[in-house]
Structures are given as structure tokens and as C-alpha cells.
Amino acid sequence: MSQRASSSTDPRFAPLPPLLTLEAVGKTFGSHVVLDGIDLRLAPGEVVAIIGPSGSGKSTLLRCINQLEPPTSGRVTLGGTVIEAGHTPGRRELMNLRRAVGMVFQSFNLFPHLTVLRNVSIAQERVMKRSRAEADKISMQLLARVGLADKAQQYPSRCSGGQQQRIAIARALALEPQIMLFDEPTSALDPELGLEVLAVMRELAENGMTMIVVTHEMHFAEEVSDRVIIMADGKIVEQGVSRDVMRNPQTERARRFLHAVKDR
Amino acid sequence: MTADMFWTLASGVPWTIGLTAVSLLIGVLLGIPLCALRMSRILALNLAAQAVILTLRAIPPIVWLFFIFFGLGSSVIELSPFQAGAVGLGLITAANMAEIYRGAMTAIHPGQWEAAHALGFTTWHRFADVIAPQLFRVALPTAAGYAIGLLKDTAIASTIGVAEVAFQASHVSQRSFRGLDVYAFAGLLYILLSLPIAWAARWADLHLRARVAR
Amino acid sequence: MTDLLDFWIEHLPSLLDGLWVSLAVTGASLAFGIPLGLVLALAVQGKSKILRSLAITVVEVGRGAPALILLQFVYFGLPNAGLALDSFPSAVIALAWCTGAYTSEIIRAGLEAVPHGQREAATAIGLTGLDALRFVVLPQALRVSVPALLGFAILMLQASSLCFAIALPELVSQAYLIGSTTFRYMAILVLAGLLYAAICIPATIAVAALERRLGKHA
To answer: Which residues cross the membrane (chain C) (predicted)?
Structure first.
């Protein structure tokens, strides 16, 4: 490991008490190790990009944070909620965690049988117990924020991929999460449509949202995120200030990956 | 349940199997020309076949069996209960098999027809060597499912007096006033009888899949 | 020919009475059977081992035994266990059992057709398992199942003819009764067949059209 790989102890990267802490988080499927002892601290407002070859465990790491995939070892702490692997978390803890974490998927996963507006408002009604009218009002504001207020009464299938992903972002924001997870949000999109999604994400980042973004967009990783993490084979092989890591990686594995990506 | 009751019920098994087999044979064979007509480019033939298939499938089997046994039997041609049952269930099976064949035909990739064309096969060879084996393979699981349904439908022939399992069950139940265990056992018998069909179909499916895939 | 028409006109009212009973027993069986099918589909996929084996048994017997045997079991068999029911409730119990068994497979296929990402997204936005099922998974699963369920409903109307065997005065029983008193089996059975065909043929064509339309949009 390089000098920079242990930089989570560097005060520069944790100026405030961390919002999210992962301690030795691991995930195995049978004998297959997908995540191997991941340590990660995220300060409020920090934007972290995770890059790395496919199969390196990036998506699984995101899913371990909100317990879509329960980790097989380690501990996840978010705000006041602590979830230890091995102890089945209580309903209330899981609900608190999922309310605090917004997630955006590669394939959008909008609900096709609900209007755009219902997609955004349903969790407010069912989870936050807002009235229908209030939920719809807030949903309209969120849709306006991602530039899609005019699509409110449409069904998702009538929207382009880029629009669907922006709606998915609005849906995740509806729960007023403390942190947003993005799982390759532009991978399923044409480059042009990806740009409109990246613009929304940039706006979120500039307004202080704490974000973890698994991405193949090297430009986004370098320009928008504060910190870049490179993963390979279920481990963090390098992390640090975005520009440094992207331009001057210290480890051989990171160099090889960045080289391969830039050649493409 | 007494041994006597058991053996009476069991005596219906050959009739159930026989009626299923004969009806299935009639349906499998008669379904071929019916399917050919249904896919004919001559509109009149096509529509006639459609009408026949729809009618056979739209009217409940019990009505067909009554029609053949009591209706035709009283005025046109007298048939034994077994003959009437086999004709009625056989015709219904033919309509269903025609639809199963047609479904299988559409499931075969159009490229297969084109390839057979391009290789200069005659129409018959095209069908016999290229299409038929695939057709059989695709249709088999559905046809086996239908055969199990047919086995259960033969119970309906008890209403016109074929001495099969359901007939024996109602006979024994009326004599002994022990409907509960008699009908439970009869139901079990049908389930047991359908198992070999399911196994045979699965075996044939695996066997054929290996051969056709090669 | 006029003789036949006179005969038909004379007996049509009693056949229509019978048809009404057929439709009523079919409707009631579906009304109880389809919710049962939903419960069975969920139980078969559920976590509880006891519930799962129970559901599988109910489904396998309901699909494996002929509907006629189920009807006779309920009508002639259950009295041995102290439960003597009229022919109508007996018919509804037996046919609802049959409906539940078959529709559970239809609905299970519908549930499996809902992409995994839908459940993931529902979980990620904090919906409870029950809410995810109710608002996200079931509406989509049932929509996929509609053509198959309608097709099954047509089969159920035909299966209601088996209630002849338990003395329910439905269409076939009425026709048989008229046949046995007038000895004009052929004429009355043709009319009964026409009544079934008048419902089932248009319904079959409509379901096929619906299936094609949904298929195109999927």
C-alpha cells in the first residue's frame, strides 16, 4: 500500500466527525470473497468517486452501506445508527438507515406502473407519513429541481433514459437523505444523455450533498469529487485527493487500471 | 377402506389408461391435418379449421360426450361408452394438439426455414429432416402437460358409464357411504398415474435436448 | 326445422336458468379462488417451511386430481367428516380449490416476471416488505397475469359443467333433464353447446387479442 492509501488518518480528509464510517466491512458469497476488509470514513458534504475494474466489488460496497446486501463482516455506522455484520438489524434500525441513504441505480429502476409524480411521492407517503397533497407538492419541487416538472403526469416509459435517471434522483432525494449513493448512474445512457444526469449530480455536489459515486466517468471523478478511491479484487488499492490519484497514482495496480481506462 | 373397495377402484385403472391412450393417439394424429388446414393459405380452409378448433375447445367435454353418446347414440350411430368417450376426447385433443403444433411452428426460428430453402431441400425433406425434429422437441413439454390434463379429463367419461376410476369411485362410494376416503384415494390414484407421464416427458425432453443441441 | 325451433324456444328459458347457475358458480369460484391463488403463490415462495409445504400440497392436489373428483369429494365425501353442504357451496369450495391451485402458478410466474431491481428500488426508498409487495411488486405481477387469468376463467366456466355430477341445476344438468324427459338429447345438447360457444368463443378471441396487444407493448 502506498503512503496515500492510509490517508484516512490524514486530518485533511476528515475535518468534521464522519457521517459514514465503514470498519473492516467484508462480503463473501460462499467461498467467493467480494469485499475484503473495507475501511472508509466520509465527512458531511464530501463527494467520493469509486472507480476500478468491473468485478472489483464497487457495486457490492454501495449495497452493503444501505444493507441491500448485508455485509458478512465488519460494521457500518451512519449518523447514530450502527449495524454490525452477523446481528440481524432491527426493523427500526433498517428503516432509519434506508431513510438516511438515497440510492440511484444503473438501470434507474423506476416503477413503470406509477406516474413520474407517484414514483417520487410514494415513499414520502408510506415512509415519512406525509399527506398525499404535501408529498405531491414536495415532489413537484424536486422534479423542478431536476428540470422535469412537465413530466409529472407521464409514465416513466414515455421519458428518455436521461430523464428517467433524473427522476430516479428526485425519487431518492424525496426522503431527504443525508447521503446519496450512485451506482454507475450513467453507464446505461448514451454519452449525451449521461451529461444531463452528471449536471444534476454536479449541482447536488455543489450544494453540499454527501455523495458516493461508483462511476466510469473519469472526468467526473477528477473534476467533481473531492476524493477518489480505486478498488480492485474487493480491496481499496489507492485513495486520495482526486487530482493527485488520477494524475499521479502511487500503486502499480492503480496505475495499470488508469492506464487501461485512458487508452480506451 | 377395505381391500375389496381398493380392488374395485383399481379395476378402473386399465380403463383410465386405455381411454387416455386411445384419445391421445386420435388427437396426436388428427391434430396434424387440422394444424395443416389451420395454417393453410387458402382462406376458406383456414377459416373452417379455425371454426372447428374454436368450437371443439369452447364447448365443455361433458357436453361433447353426452352429445355423442346420448344424442348421436339415440338416433344415428350407437357407440359403446368407451367408444363415445374416445371419439369425444380424441376430437377435443385433436383441436388442442393442432394449436400446440402451430405454437411450436411459430417458435421455430424463421432462419431454419430459410436455411433449408437455401440448401435446396425439397419441401418434404425440408419438413422431415429440418423442421419436424425441432417441432417435436419444442412441442413435447406442452403436449406432455396436455396429456396429463387429458388423463384427468377421462374422469368425465364416468358420466356416460365408462368403467374407469371415477366411475368405480362413485360406485363404491354409493354402496359403502364412505365418500371421504374413496374419493381421496381416487384423487391420489390420478396423481400417481400422472407421475409416469411427467417423468417420461422430462426424460425425453433432456434426451432430445442433448441430441438436437448437438 | 320449425319443429326444432319450437322445441328450442320452448326449452330455452330453463337452459338460461341453468346458464345463470353456471355463471354464478363460476363467478363465486373465481372470487374465492383467485385470492386463494395469490395467498398460495406467496406462501410457496415464503420463508416458513411449514406454510410452504402446506401450500405446495394444496396446489399439487388441486392441480393433480380431476376437478370432478374434487367436486365429488366435497359433496359426497365431506358429509362423512360431519360437513354436509348443498351442491352450490360444495361446487364453489371444490372449484375455488382448483382455481387457487392453477392461478397460484399463474401469479407466481407473474411475480417472477417482475425484475429484481424493482424490489431493490422499493427497499432502497425505505418501503417495508409489505408495502413493496402492495405498491410495487403485486400491481406489476398481476398486470402480467391478467391474460392468463382471463383464459383460466373461460376454462372454469367449462369446468362448472362438471357440477352435473353433484346435482347442481346448471346448464348441462338442465339440458340432460330435458333430454331425458323428451328423448330429444341431440336437439337440446346442441342448444346447450351453442350457449357455451356463444360465451366462450368471443371470450377466447378477446383474450387472444388482449394478449397480442400486451405482448406488443411489453
So the answer is: 20-44, 148-168, 188-210
Which chains border C (3 or more CB–CB pairs < 8 Å)?
A, B
Residue C218 lies in a domain: no
Residue A108 CA to residue A185 CA, distance in Å, equals 8
CATH code, C104: 1.10.3720.10
Residue type, B20: T
Q: What is the ipTM of this complex?
A: 0.91
Angle at C109 between CA C104 and CA C115, to 5 degrees: 135
User: Chain B residues within 8 A (CB-CB) of chain C?
Assistant: 54-55, 57-64, 66-67, 70-72, 74-75, 152-153, 155-156, 158-159, 166, 169-170, 173, 177-184, 186-188, 190-191, 194
d(CA A255, CA A231): 12
Mean pLDDT, residues A10-38 taken together: 83
pLDDT of residue B93: 97
Interchain pair B54, C201: CB under 8 A: yes
Indicate the pLDDT class of residue A113, thresholds 50, 70 and 90.
Answer: very high
Domain count, chain C: 1
Mutate to test the interface with B, among C68, C95, C170, C172 (most CBs of B within 10 A): C68
Tens digit of each residue's pLDDT (9 = 90 or more) over A150-201: 999 999 999 999 999 999 999 999 999 999 999 999 999 998 899 999 999 9
- The answer to which of A9-13, B9-13, B172-176, C19-23 has the lowest mean pLDDT is A9-13
Q: Is C162 on the interface with B (CB under 8 A)?
A: yes
pTM over 0.90: no
Tell me which residue range forms the domain holding C114: 2-213
Within 8 A of C64 by CB-CB distance, chain B residues are: 152, 187, 190-191, 194
Q: What pLDDT was estimated at residue A7? A: 44
Name the strands in the sheet holding A81-84, side by side, starting at the edge strand that comes first in the sequence. Answer: A32-42, A20-29, A73-78, A81-84
Among A84-93, B20-29, C20-29, name the one with the lowest average pLDDT: A84-93
pLDDT at A10: 55
Nearest Cα neighbor of C37 from C112, C107, C114 is C107
Is C156 inside any structural domain? yes
In order of their start, the domains of chain B are 3-213 (1.10.3720.10)
> Nearest to residue A209, comparing CAs of A42, A41, A63?
A42
The secondary structure of C155-189 as a DSSP string is: HHHHHGGGGGGGT--SHHHHHHHHHHHHS-HHHHH
Interchain proximity C120–A126, CB inside 8 Å: no
Q: Write out chain B residues lying below 8 Å of C73, CB-based.
A: 179-180, 183-184, 187
Q: Which of A59, A62, A107, A111 to mutate to test the interface with C (most CBs of C within 10 A)?
A: A111
